[in-house]
Design a protein that fits this description.
CATH superfamily of the largest domain: Isopropylmalate Dehydrogenase
Strand order of the largest sheet: 3-2-1-4-11-10-5-6-9-7-8
CATH topology of the largest domain: Isopropylmalate Dehydrogenase
CATH class of the largest domain: Alpha Beta
Number of strands: 11
Helix content: 40-55%
Largest sheet: 11 strands, mixed
Shape: globular
Length: 335
């Protein structure tokens, strides 16, 4: 199995993307199809150890900037790394696609080139966020800012399949993000979605959960609209950075603290790893007819390495086919 990578996507350029992709290919036992300006990709490849790595370089000279209009850029720049990598997935030459580039362009191109899974109205960006219990899957993190209530039911179904197939949870619990636990809390979207989720077959619905319940790990899957989910994600990233910086400042504030920090360094390193976005690697775009991984624009080598793992696990877990089967079963039950 190969993972197609948008080698020019991301804030840090091909050197970081390629180094991370190669490390991921070696760690997760997959091949690579690297799409980007060929000279740049080969220059980046010359700086890493390629022993034992199956790879192919495919020229993709068009570059889509982070601030470009996604739909227009995808239509005009048909030889971008995003489009070439997605084309490989569409043709069956790769089992997954990874990009740290313009996320809007990735979503637009994925919908144009791969299409939606039958029964999916809108796709969702899903990613595990760290919690006391390990991780809680949150979706949507930005694909659909104004979904209909029925879309949140589909998000719950897709999240359930992901939690089963990738996270290994047999009967994952699902929560609806709201401003209170009571069924009467939330805006019109939340209240209507709550009523639908409460009776939806195939979903182990826990009820409403609050923002604080995400790091507490109260449920396995949390569904919300893309606007709220993206805000929650950015707050979580900022909070993790703040905690890390506050601890660093305190541990270096005196000689005694520095000595204590030296003793506790392994424990702090493990704690940092638990909340580091790079350890997650990337978010899956669930609902498209193929495995698409959206990595953070500022992804480092570790993040890109783990993004390859996200794609490999989703492909090997048959997430796309399982979502299609689950939604078909859900439609049959409702009919």
């Amino acid at each position: 199995m190969r993972v197609a990578v948008d080698a020019a996507g991301g804030d840090k350029g091909p050197d970081v993307v390629v180094a991370g992709a190669v490390a991921g290919a070696r760690r997760f036992g997959v091949g690579l199809l690297l799409a980007g300006p060929e000279s740049d990709v080969r220059r980046a490849l010359s700086r890493v150890d390629l022993s034992g790595v199956d790879y192919e370089v495919r020229d993709a000279p068009d570059l889509i900037a982070m601030d470009e209009s996604p739909a227009q850029a995808v239509r005009r720049k048909t030889r971008s790394g995003i489009s070439v990598a997605l084309d490989a997935v569409k043709r069956g030459e790769a089992g997954a696609m990874v990009s740290a580039g313009n996320s809007g362009a990735v979503m637009a191109a994925a919908l144009m080139m791969l299409g939606r899974i039958p029964g999916v109205d809108r796709p969702a960006i899903a990613s595990p966020l760290p919690s006391r219990q390990g991780y809680s899957l949150v979706l949507d993190l930005g694909a659909v800012t104004d979904p209909k209530p029925q879309s949140l039911v589909q998000f719950a179904q897709m999240g359930t399949v992901y939690a089963q197939r990738v996270m290994g949870i047999v009967n994952p619990t699902v929560g609806l993000l709201s401003n209170g636990e009571e069924a009467t809390k939330g805006n019109a979207l939340v209240q209507e979605a709550h009523a639908l989720l409460a009776v939806a077959p195939g979903i182990n619905f826990h009820g409403n959960v609050e923002g604080r319940d995400i790091p507490r790990g109260v449920v396995d899957v949390i569904v919300t609209d893309g606007f709220t989910g993206n805000v929650a994600l950015k707050v979580a990233e900022g909070a993790a950075a703040l905690v890390g910086e506050a601890i660093r400042q305190e541990l270096t504030s005196s000689l005694l603290n520095k000595m204590a920090a030296a003793i506790l360094k392994p424990a702090f390193a493990r704690a940092k790893k638990r909340i580091d976005y790079a350890e997650t690697g990337g978010a899956l775009l669930l609902g498209t007819n193929g495995v698409v991984v959206i990595a953070h624009g500022r992804s480092n080598v570790t993040a890109m390495q783990n993004a390859i793992g996200v794609g490999a696990r989703a492909h090997n877990g048959g997430v796309t086919d399982a979502i299609a089967a689950a939604l078909l079963e859900l439609q049959s039950a409702v009919a």
